[in-house]
Design brief:
The structure is a homodimer.
Chain A: H1 3-14, E1 18-22, H2 31-37, H3 45-63, E2 69-72, H4 75-78, H5 81-97, E3 101-108, H6 112-122, E4 125-128, E5 131-134, E6 140-143, H7 149-162, E7 165-171, H8 178-181, E8 184-187, E9 190-193, H9 194-205, E10 218-222, H10 227-236, E11 242-244, H11 254-257, E12 268-272, H12 274-277, H13 291-305
Parallel strand pairs in A: 1-2, 1-12, 2-3, 3-6, 6-7, 7-10, 10-11, 11-12
Antiparallel strand pairs in A: 4-5, 8-9
Chain lengths: ~300, ~300
């Protein structure tokens, strides 16, 4: 079963399109986890990484039966060097053990020969003394396609070979996304925005990776903060699954993510990070010791909110 | 002294603008290093990472007195998971100990709050139990600016605070770089290519980070494979240092990199990876045991080649 079919199936089984963003910020991790991970006040990066790991496990345990997927953002782990990278690997593996699909949010990009390295590192196999071994083995990866097709091709190849997926940045959720993405292009006689050209690429590059669900393993990142653009993009990429950041803490609401879905009620997964994993900070009902319950309840509320 | 001044000074002292790309491919590492790193044929990722480290040390020792900087490409390390990431950190630190400036080639990019995480991870400080500690602490980082200014701003901030640098992808060296980068934009009444708009951004974003050398700590990646475009870009970004990939193995020649330099003979560093670090494969004069000598001689030849 290809990645798109696996993701659509998981969305149907769980009955919602929620992706939990695992973006652990050390400053916001509950004190009981910090004091245990940093026993003896070693104040090392390894201790910080341990705290991220324990925190993530609590979140994953609390939401695994509810949602189809998680999206750990690697910057929050790379901060702590190799120890953080190790916890990134462990977080991905733990989430998969619990039945979740894992979207590695790393926005990797490079020329072909190097992109091949990233593709192996995150989704495929890596060379090992004449043989091969699995890399980090996430289910999908976010990719920045500023370099064009030959920088995307190695990822597309591993999608095919290993039933993995990628989500290409099309229209991102941040305020400055328009600096480049909203600029107007002259393509032949047509005028289109840069994000529309990128959408055209996604549609074209993903055409031969469409599964039985009708969706392709090459998806698109489309921010919840730009509903008008999402409406246009939905039509331009009928087979792409949208990975939608920007709901919740970044300001996107249920009404804003609606245009990201197709008429079949599918075709998008909606990410929330801070709004779920640090939900305990926003409601006095929960103390830090109940951060996982708070996250679970936040998912339940988000599920209700998205029932349109 | 800001990053640009440090780099220009190093180029003047070493008398050449060469950047050695540390892109170690396990399959091409000499047998004596492989057999030592993989003693007992454990065939683990840790053993692979050990081989990369030993190989890199040999290269760094051989070229440290000759060149101003090195550029380790992180994909080749991330392949081996946390062990690879650890060797990436160790490689950067070792090169700095030997007096080299280190450009982390990781092409990171994200929305502001996440970009801040990457900026700390690679160039600045990261939060640690109420305090702060240095991250990987490279001298500069490559950045992909598809997300616009708010995704670049945290990197610019750390450039200012910590005397670090970034190189933003403008016109990359790969064959498909034109898919997006060569498209024609209508900006107001002006027509310009996407890479020209990016050049405008680089010039503008870097304007308040210009050092005494006249160069800015915000530089640009401009491929040696596109000399015509480089000529235009050189005029558009007079204060930017160009990081020029694509010389050597990718096909760029000395004549092609000329347009990347200003009339002062400065303003660009030229990267070569495979052509230097695996030079031993291209000349029977060297055996695998003399890979470091071969790399040193390749640098000397490149230095001659670039003396225009």
């Amino acid at each position: 079963m290809n990645f798109a079919d696996k993701l659509i199936q998981a969305v149907k089984i769980k009955g919602n399109p929620i992706c939990v963003g695992l973006d652990p910020r050390l400053e916001q991790i509950p004190a009981q986890i910090i004091s245990k991970a940093n026993e003896g006040e070693k104040n090392t990066k390894e201790a910080a990484a341990e705290a991220l790991k324990a925190f993530n496990k609590g979140i994953i345990d609390a939401v695994a039966d509810l949602v189809p997927c998680v999206k750990p953002q690697i910057a929050f782990y790379e901060q702590y060097g190799w120890a953080g990278f190790k916890v990134y690997e462990e977080t991905c593996a733990y989430a998969q053990e619990k039945g979740l699909l894992v979207i590695a949010d790393a926005k990797r990009n490079d020329i072909g020969s190097t992109a091949k390295g990233y593709a192996g590192a995150f989704l495929g196999k890596v060379p090992l003394f004449g043989g091969e071994v699995a890399g980090l083995d996430a289910d999908a990866l976010t990719v920045n396609a500023y370099l064009g097709w030959d920088g995307v091709k190695p990822f597309a190849q591993v999608c095919r070979d290993e039933d993995k997926g990628i989500f290409i940045l099309v229209k991102t959720s941040n305020i400055s996304s328009g600096d480049l993405q909203d600029q107007e292009l002259l393509v032949g006689k047509d005028k289109m925005q840069v994000y529309e050209l990128m959408a055209h690429f996604v549609d074209s590059w993903g055409a031969d990776l469409i599964g039985e669900s009708g969706y392709s393993s090459i998806g698109a990142v489309v921010g919840a903060t730009y509903p008008q653009q999402a409406k246009v993009l939905r039509k331009m990429m009928p087979h792409a699954i949208f990975l939608v950041p920007g709901y919740g803490a970044q300001g996107g609401e249920a009404e804003d993510v609606k245009p990201c879905f197709n008429e079949d009620g599918l075709g998008a997964i909606v990410n929330s990070s801070r709004g779920i994993i640090f939900a305990y900070e926003n409601d006095e009902k929960y103390g830090p010791e109940n951060y996982a319950d708070a996250a679970r309840d936040a998912v339940v509320r988000m599920k209700e909110d998205l029932r349109f």
